[in-house]
Design brief:
The chain is globular, with a radius of gyration of 18 Å. The model has no long low-confidence stretch (mean pLDDT 97). It starts with a strand and ends with a helix. It has one domain: Inosine-uridine Nucleoside N-ribohydrolase, Chain A. Helix 2 links the parallel strand 2 and strand 3. Helix 1 packs parallel to helix 2, helix 5 packs across helix 8 and helix 10 runs parallel beside helix 13. The strands form two sheets. A nine-stranded mixed β-sheet has the order 3-2-1-4-5-6-11-9-10, with helices on both faces. The protein has a two-stranded antiparallel sheet with strand order 7-8. The protein is an alpha/beta fold.
């Protein structure tokens, strides 16, 4: 069955691969729209980048809506060291002809959920969860019509990637993450424990560069930004894991667990506390992906995108 999906994102290099994978998988994914949020770069850039990727993939018909330009309670943080100042380091950035929709992303999300049969639309959220939290604050009953929320965010045993304790999306808006994790809808999460096993390197860049026009345009974003002399040769393909799961869930191992988000301590702000053993006694609220066939997921992502 084809999933009806609203994608909430902050493109972002790995977001670009998630968008492309969804577009390259029409039998499994019907991408209804993209809602942009502040995150990896400023909102003006994330909403431009989303339209640009749609245009590169010959899908300018997918509407893009601008959303929150700041987190719920904290100042914005960005990740230019991983994505470049444009958000799409490694490819040529341009002003897309595709227009930005005039409606606010949160209103679009709620209107679309209200108009559809309950339990038929999946929200895939691969940036900070601010737009989703605002939708819940505005109309929790309508938000509850979503079939499920599939999230890239958090970390358990892997630790953080922006602080020792926190993954970027949850650190960027921990209050929004906490609100969404308490929403009561089915939640599926892909954190760093899994995404750090899904790695793209030179071989994957070469495969894309010999693929179709869209794949060739995206190929320069596979390799890590090496400006700091880290010597890294591979980059995690974080965000496409969400769509890879919708396409081939058998490639992942997942378990129902309780996850809470730290919102008070500056030392551990945005930390996701993953209760794998049930020691907290709190009810499970998330289907947590904790292991993956990394090479198979990488092959799925690259093979699909190379065809466009």
């Amino acid at each position: 069955m084809t999933e009806q999906v609203i994608l909430d994102c902050d493109p972002g290099r790995d977001d670009a691969f998630a968008i492309a994978l969804a577009i390259a998988s029409p039998d499994e994914i019907n991408l209804l729209a993209i809602t942009a949020v502040v995150g990896n770069v400023e909102l003006s850039k994330t909403q431009r980048n989303a339209r640009m990727i749609c245009e590169i993939c010959s899908r300018s018909d997918i509407p893009v809506y601008g959303g929150a330009d700041k987190p719920l309670k904290r100042p914005p943080v960005h990740a230019a060291e991983h994505h470049g100042v444009t958000g799409l380091h490694g490819m040529e950035v341009f002003d897309p002809a595709q227009p930005l929709q005039s409606q606010f992303a949160v209103d679009y999300m709620l209107d679309t959920l209200a108009a559809a049969d309950a339990g038929t639309i999946t929200i895939v959220a691969i940036g900070p969860l601010t737009n989703l939290a605002l939708a819940m604050e505005k109309d929790a009953d309508t938000f509850a019509r979503a079939k499920q929320v599939v999230i890239m965010g958090g970390a358990g045993r892997a630790g953080g990637n922006i602080t020792p304790a926190a993954e970027f999306n949850f650190y960027a808006d921990p209050h929004a993450a906490a609100k969404v994790l308490a929403c009561g809808r089915p939640l599926v999460m892909f954190g760093l424990d899994v995404t750090h096993q899904v790695l793209g390197g030179q071989d994957e860049a070469d495969r894309l560069s010999h693929g179709g026009p869209a794949a060739n345009a995206l190929s320069g974003m596979v390799l890590p930004i090496n400006e700091n002399g880290t010597g890294k040769t591979h980059s995690p393909l974080h965000d496409p894991c969400t769509f890879a799961w919708l396409i081939s869930p058998n490639l992942f191992d997942a378990k129902m667990v309780n996850i809470e988000v730290e919102c008070d301590s500056e030392l551990t702000m945005g930390m996701s506390v993953v209760d794998m053993r049930g020691s907290s006694g709190r009810a499970p609220n998330v289907l947590w992906a904790h292991d993956v066939d990394g090479p198979a997921v990488v092959d799925l992502i690259i093979r699909r995108i190379a065809a466009i």
